[in-house]
Amino acid sequence: MSTFFQNARVASANNGQLPPEAQPWVEKYRPKSMNEIASQEQAVQVLKKALTSNNLPHLLFYGPPGTGKTSTILALARELFGPELIRSRVLELNASDERGIQIVREKVKNFARTTVTATVDDYPCPPYKIIILDEADSMTTDAQSALRRTMETYSKTTRFCLVCNYVSRIIEPLTSRCAKFRFKPLPIEKLKERIAMVCEQEGVQIEPEATSTLIKASNGDLRKAIMFLQSGAKLHAGEKIVASSINEMAGIVPPEVMSSLTAAWYSTEYQEISKIVNEVMNAGFSAEQILSQMHDHLVTDGDLSAYKKAKISLVLGEVDLCLINGADEHLQILNLMLKAADIVTH
Amino acid sequence: MSLWADKYRPQSLDKLTYHNDLSAHLKKMAHSGDFPHMLFYGPPGAGKKTRIAAVLREIYGPGVERLKVDQRQFVTPSNRKLDLNIVSSNYHMELNPSDVGMYDRAVVQDLIKEVAQTQQIDANAKHRFKIIVINEADELSREAQAGLRRTMEKYMTNLRIILCCNSTSKIISPIRSRCLLVRVARPSEGEIDDAMQAVAKKENFSLPHELCVKIADDSDRNLRKALLTLEATKVQEPNLAQVQKIVKTDWEIEIGNIADLIIAEQNPNRVLLVRTRMYELISRCIPSSLIIKNLAFDLANKVDRRLRSGIIEHAAIYEHRLRTGNKDIFHLEAFVARVMSLIKRHQMEKNS
Ligand SMILES: Nc1ncnc2c1ncn2[C@@H]1O[C@H](COP(=O)(O)OP(=O)(O)OP(=O)(O)O)[C@@H](O)[C@H]1O
Ligand SMILES: [Mg+2]
């Protein structure tokens, strides 16, 4: 047995204090209360009512990564029960836990069995427990079906909160039992606000242009925005963060590379096109990212006819599917480029 | 005797010879107290693993190089026992999902969480957190990736993850949202030249410039491949000044031969012949998707220009099917038959 495993003692999640410079900002700036949640007004408004009433429906949060789903439910639980009671009142099961049918049933049963009476001062402590099923879209349909019964059995004493990215992956009988909240990508204004807030607190300097790049690159994902900010701050220690480093961190393909690709649409030479594709692939750019930026270009391009744009879009869609299924990026991008060139030059 | 490609692998960030900006960037990250989860991506032979190893060393010092291999046992949800060899140092651990196959989710759930829930007590350790390096992260199943999500957040004090993969397309978006992306491009041909010359110097032989350029050119900027070719060439002909032809790997030559077979004749017998030849390649563990890809590129360079995009189109189609289907040879063969029909039709049109 290596010391890697031995030299260790059990630690609980993120316990203990890290020195401030060692703290990841994404965790440092995770909202602690409902008031700190940026945007997501609909969810916040409804959930705040739960703080004053004794009731709460089952909940379903869905939306893209880094929009505050996990943070919101944790903040709610904290405000309802306080830091102590939360341990006995809230059960979090996420995709890192084994969530087969049997196990979920067992865990829920054990957790929900004991009745709740204890309260603490300063917190509403309503008479129910909360079970958070985070990342619920990675549960099998069978496990989800089994959950239906479980939810009903314990509905007197427990509230479920399902959290996922894709609501379409949750079976209908479950979604229909929950109050649904869509977590939207954070709007530009809110992102700006949060970025400014973090910059001020951490003493980070950033070029105004880099801020807009940051906002664009994070695409409504606040976690990303904060992480890029921290990495950028380290990279430029003491100096201003510039746009190009944000782009690189976000994996964005530089404009000059994109225009070399789109310019090749006007070529009829296989060798020329395959050479450029080879360059781009050797540089390691992600095919998916290329696709998405190509799409942006296509939408705004002023030279191509609508008909040609539509035809290229069709190809983009097909290639995207293949990539998602794990097809070879080089072949796919080369094929895409040849087809696009064929459409453009005919 | 280790291969030159391994023997002369630079150990520290300072010794890496290319992408100096990136090295400097990583160095700054390594020395600041905090370190984000990272996702290294880039084509094969770009030097990702070397760079990751150098980062680990920068963070923890030479202690990370004292590696041990442990046998760990896992019980899968279906109660199967699973033995796994794990390479680790006091500070980090490496994981290759391909070693675990379909049970990667169980491994992520158990092993990584176990590590995540324990912390260093080595008081001298520079950091509270340990690092888990997951190679070939794009081979991780979606379930296994999902299993990483909360762990990456909840246990950030104790654990940082470095993922290494060829492409980010197969990494689910919530994981990408949690990682800093680090792109490692292949070195330029000039940088490959330099690296080969440096090895030649250490091995005490002189490497003629033309040969060096030839190898660099042939390697398609894959540094590992260039070094392997250099070594193989040197073994075959110790007097490099006399080398006429650089050594190519057998399978590459074979793919060239198969392309020639396809171009020379198009009929059912030929399909059959090509099929046996491809079977041999598969049995020598050449990945089918690599076969299709290289065959397509080779064919495209050899046929009439009007046939080229058709060949690439079908290579893209059949390579994709190969991923979603389960019997590789069907799709390889279908591709070959398709290409033959393209060639044949083209010839008939030309003659009529
Ligand atoms: N609406 C928000 N208000 C304030 N901070 C936010 C918000 N959304 C995201 N964040 C920031 O991003 C981090 C991650 O957010 P969170 O864990 O809630 O995302 P999530 O929606 O659960 O994402 P995933 O789908 O990837 O699990 C938080 O720690 C916080 O710093
Ligand atoms: Mg979450």
TrEMBL record, chain A:
Keywords: ATP-binding, DNA replication, DNA-binding, Nucleotide-binding, Nucleus. It is found in: Nucleus. The keyword Disulfide bond does not apply. Pfam families: AAA, RCF1-5-like_lid, Rep_fac_C. GO terms for cellular component: DNA replication factor C complex; Elg1 RFC-like complex; nucleus. SUPFAM superfamilies: P-loop containing nucleoside triphosphate hydrolases, post-AAA+ oligomerization domain-like. It comes from the Eukaryota. The keyword Zinc does not apply. InterPro entries: AAA+_ATPase, ATPase_AAA_core, DNA_pol3_clamp-load_cplx_C, DNA_Rep/Repair_Clamp_Loader, P-loop_NTPase, Rep_factorC_C. One of its GO terms (molecular function) is DNA clamp loader activity. SMART domains: AAA. Its main location: nucleus. CDD domains: AAA. Residues 55-189 form the AAA+ ATPase domain. Coiled coil: none annotated. PANTHER family: REPLICATION FACTOR C / DNA POLYMERASE III GAMMA-TAU SUBUNIT, REPLICATION FACTOR C SUBUNIT 4. Belongs to the activator 1 small subunits family. This is Replication factor C subunit 2. The lineage of its organism: Eukaryota, Fungi, Fungi incertae sedis, Mucoromycota, Mucoromycotina.
Automatic annotation (TrEMBL), chain B:
GO terms for molecular function: DNA binding; DNA clamp loader activity. One of its GO terms (biological process) is DNA strand elongation involved in DNA replication. Its main location: nucleus. One of its GO terms (cellular component) is Elg1 RFC-like complex. SMART domains: AAA. It is found in: Nucleus. Gene3D superfamilies: 1.10.8.60, 1.20.272.10, P-loop containing nucleotide triphosphate hydrolases (3.40.50.300). Keywords: DNA replication, Nucleus. Residues 34-187 form the AAA+ ATPase domain. Belongs to the activator 1 small subunits family. PANTHER family: REPLICATION FACTOR C / DNA POLYMERASE III GAMMA-TAU SUBUNIT (PTHR11669), REPLICATION FACTOR C SUBUNIT 3 (PTHR11669:SF1). This is Replication factor C subunit 5. It comes from Umbelopsis ramanniana AG.
